């Protein structure tokens, strides 16, 4: 992110917005609607002077890794809330860390958010106290992975799709189906990659939705025993041809550059890096649709710094900060306004509701089927984890 | 046994070959730190000094090095004290349960790091209710560093026997005086060697650290791991590694000099 | 001893019998009194020496370890991730009977044993050269050369091997002219990388062990007509065996618990460490993770028990 001269002005606006909220609440007038859940904060008070964030690497950058990448300092200057950050590598790690109650705010992906809600680790969020909430894309609001019964538990941050990446030397014409990593993966034996997480089972389910309609999968995160078994079978076949599973940028980028991997799931940001290095790769969103993530900033139910936490939620949803953070991480921002501060929104299909509708956002599989079926029990995340270990063998 | 010239040369060549292999990956790291590729691809597409410049501006990296040094120093001091005490006890006394204790010291290093890590994590968080912090890392590191000090010190104690200490006691020196003037000076180089190894062990530990570090505690290995998940940071990590390797030669060399000269005096 | 008190039986520092002391009698101070007390009460001295370390290891480590093992008998609510403290053998049974765990255990054990073997084979000549052939100056340089790689971070080295072993890597580049090719990512790559990472930890104890073998012994063997190989086999080897085993404890146990290297260069394979890590980190199932952790614990204890008699535990 390049610090641009508008930072200062924008900073002032946020500061003002927050100050006015605080002022409003100080007068005891912030009793408006939206507090349909008893637990959500109804008013804000004095800033506590610090806030501790639990975030994906790259979501909270204070310039310490790269002096040019810093959207925490302006926040600290505006609000006086000193930010301390802990990063996590997987959703599950985040879940574990939130249990300690040491963090005020967490950036949760859909495969963690519901579990955080269920465990009572996060509190509902009163969006009236977050002025920037209004601008956020409607298709990100009130979704299964950030709200429960219409009660929002957080503010959407950014979203992205798990895309099919391929080496253009091996694939002169772009593949249009995920079959190159499933049914036809044998053609690229030892050079196929897949995301290393139980949630990847949903990718197989998306594929089965299109190719094995007899299984009756309606939602890739709502699989009964039989459907899960079918997905596991598919993944076990795939396993024979997998060169390696990936979970960090660097591994994936290296493997595609050197040709150790020629096809597999990837993220847009990885393609951007590869492109800048002149690698012969391309990404595509196959016809079957795909999985993806839509992350949510949530507030701990045990937060000792709720005012600073609310301030952070508002700040990170503000166009400039959101643009900076999502651009650095490599995902679409949460509002059109943020695109004013980014040049690459198009590559990420930001705001394209049609594109977004092809994405099945990560959600936590639970026993109660997410697709509304009541006659069967669905397999939960624990079952998926066990299955995933079995698949890897 | 007198080694023939041929076998000496062969041994020398084998040693040289192994060392060459040992240094190939480090050479790759060195080259990568000057490479224009951000993903450490080989061969490097071009030459740049950008990463060296950026690494020295990276406050996060500096902070992480400093955190690691702090942790390693404190953990080393604790393990020096505890390791010396326990080796004095085990070498100078024979008592019931001695074998069990020597097993107990080895356990934290012999059991895989992930087990030590989750055990301590569980212990601190759920049993003790202590929030994870820099101190939990120090405690964890000190626990598995004791063994390196213990081994060096007990080997030295065994070799030097108790004659001098007995003489000192006969001449009227108290327990403490004897330790200060006789035992400790004899142990100095063993402590140095053990301490250095403990420091290195703590400095590069990642698995136990992952499970015991609190929010905001970023040791160097954790910083490196985190940066593998960030775009365009990998070459900076290479720079840090190169600097560490170069800088580390100084303390190792000094330690070598000290223990070497001590050996010659004897 | 100035007190002239006869040393109590069993005291490790028996005072020679003296009729009179030429040393002036020291002033009586509290410190002196304590010192006298300590010299005459070895058990107290022992207790003071052992107190702090035992407290540390016992309270911090053993308690933590035992509690972890107890956790193996509990279960976890899969959705909320809370541990429920109901006693059950389910986790243990899962681990003992699941084919997944058997496969992965065998794989891990194989990797750990191979890594250990490779490390010993590599460490022996280099340690021997350092201890018995090199000049003192050369010796110092070699120790530095062996220790230096320890300071390049573990992760950096693992990623460096990833680069070396890749299809486009330096290894392919070196061996391709001779018709060879890189093993690529997988178990061989894991074994190579782990051997590399732990090599200094194996060299150091063996080197220290060899240094302790007096040269005079080797000369005696030569004088008595012992040729090089029999001398090494019959004189040197038995003397350094404990040191070798001490080195193997490092490489074996470090390999047994590793999950990061196999992630970086191991292709699609997983080891025991990954199973533990996934269950605690990803699945948040500490009870199952603890049950899996029992496997390496049992293996290590078995190994330590086997080598205990050799005196290796004193040589780490």
Describe, in plain words, how this protein is organized in 3D.
Chain A has 393 residues and is an alpha/beta fold. Chain A has helices at residues 6-26, 73-79, 91-98, 110-118, 201-211, 225-239, 249-258, 268-276, 306-317, 319-329, 336-339, 353-357, 381-392; strands spanning 50-55, 82-87, 105-108, 122-123, 147-148, 151-152, 155-161, 163-167, 192-195, 242-246, 263-266, 281-284, 290-300, 359-361. Helix content of chain A is 34%, strand content 17%. In chain A, the strands form 3 sheets. In chain A, strands 1, 2, 3, 4, 7, 13 and 14 form a 7-stranded mixed sheet that branches. A 5-stranded mixed sheet of chain A has the order 10-9-11-8-12, with helices on one face. The two termini of chain A are 41 Å apart. Mean pLDDT of chain A is 83; it is low at 1-38. Chain B is mostly helical. Chain B has one domain: MetI-like fold, CATH 1.10.3720.10. The model of chain B has no long low-confidence stretch (mean pLDDT 82). A two-stranded antiparallel ribbon of chain C has the order 1-2. In chain C, helix 4 packs parallel to helix 8 (187-212) and helix 8 (187-212) crosses helix 10. Chain C is flat. The two termini of chain C are 36 Å apart.
Keyword list:
heterotrimer; B: 266 residues; mainly alpha; MetI-like fold; 0% strand; C: 316 residues; two-stranded antiparallel ribbon; flat; Putative spermidine/putrescine transport system substrate-binding protein (chain A)
Short overview:
The complex is a heterotrimer of chains A (393), B (266) and C (316). By secondary structure, chain A is an alpha/beta fold. Chain A has helices at residues 6-26, 73-79, 91-98, 110-118, 201-211, 225-239, 249-258, 268-276, 306-317, 319-329, 336-339, 353-357, 381-392, and strands at 50-55, 82-87, 105-108, 122-123, 147-148, 151-152, 155-161, 163-167, 192-195, 242-246, 263-266, 281-284, 290-300, 359-361.
Helix content of chain C: 55-70%
CATH top level assignment of chain B: Mainly Alpha
- Order of secondary-structure elements of chain B: HHHHHHHHHHH
Structure annotation, total helices of chain B: 11
Helix/strand/pairing category of chain C: mainly alpha
- CATH topology heading of chain B: MetI-like fold
Secondary structure tally: strands of chain C: 2
Mean pLDDT of chain C: 81
CATH architectural type of chain B: Orthogonal Bundle
* SSE string of chain C: HHEEHHHHHHHHHHH
The quaternary state of the protein chains shown equals heterotrimer
Ranges of chain B where pLDDT stays below 50 over 5 or more residues in a row are: none
- Shape designation of chain B: globular
Total strands of chain B: 0
**What does the main sheet of chain C amount to?**
2 strands, antiparallel
Q: Can you tell me the CATH superfamily of the largest domain in chain C?
A: MetI-like
The total tally of domains of chain C equals 2
Q: What is the name of the CATH architecture of the largest domain in chain C? A: Orthogonal Bundle
Number of domains of chain B: 1
CATH class call of the largest domain in chain C: Mainly Alpha
Beta-strand percentage of chain C? under 5%
